[in-house]
Amino acid sequence: MYIEPGKLQDGELILQLDRYLAADPEREWLPTYHFNMQRAGSLEVVGWINLRIGNPERIVLYRGHIGYGVNPDSRSRRFAARSVRLLLPLAAAHSLNPIWITCNPDNLASRRTCELAGAELVEIIEVPPEEESYRYGIRQKCRYRLFTDDVPRETL
Fold it and tell me: Model confidence over 14-53: pLDDT tens digits?
């Protein structure tokens, strides 16, 4: 179920909804919000972030509810961590608690993003051969947990 995300802004950072994709069970895709990270007063896209709605095992263990990327020339401004925080009310409105964020153990920037967003590392797990990322040589995933309990739901 789509929920209008409202204005998602943190000072100079704005999350602009790019698209919402409904579930596609054949492809094992969940309903997903896709946002562009933009600077206030500019159309410049500095990165992207998405929020997947649902709790199937593959999301919780290997793929995560949130994915993000920041353009190389816009890094070191904590845009990804700030964007994760901006999505917490929307995640809470969808009763996602906790949310899970996964990354590769050697991706130190993503690990730092999770920590800056307030997530805690729960474990590093082995990726099974049937998981899609395994085909790309990924053998482990860090699992970070972030609770949405304290996020005011009336913001949506």
Answer: 999 999 999 988 877 899 999 999 999 888 999 999 999 9
Burial of 54: CB neighbours in 10 Å, binned 0-12, 13-18, 19+ = middle
As a whole number of Å, the end-to-end CA separation of the chain is: 14
In angstroms, rounded to a whole number, what is the distance separating the alpha carbons of residues 32 and 66? 9
**pTM to 2 decimal places:** 0.92
- Per-position b or e across 15-32, b if 16+ CB within 10 A of its CB: beeeebeeeeeeeeebbb
- Contact 127/133 with Cβ under 8 angstroms? yes
At the topology level of CATH, where does 8-151 sit? Aminopeptidase (3.40.630)
Q: Which residues pair with 144 in a beta bridge?
A: 101, 121
Q: How far apart are CA 82 and CA 80, in angstroms?
A: 5
Q: Which residues pair with 29 in a beta bridge?
A: 24
Kind plus residue range of the DSSP H or E element containing 84: helix 79-93
Domain boundaries, the chain: 8-151
CA gap 149, 35 in Å, rounded: 23
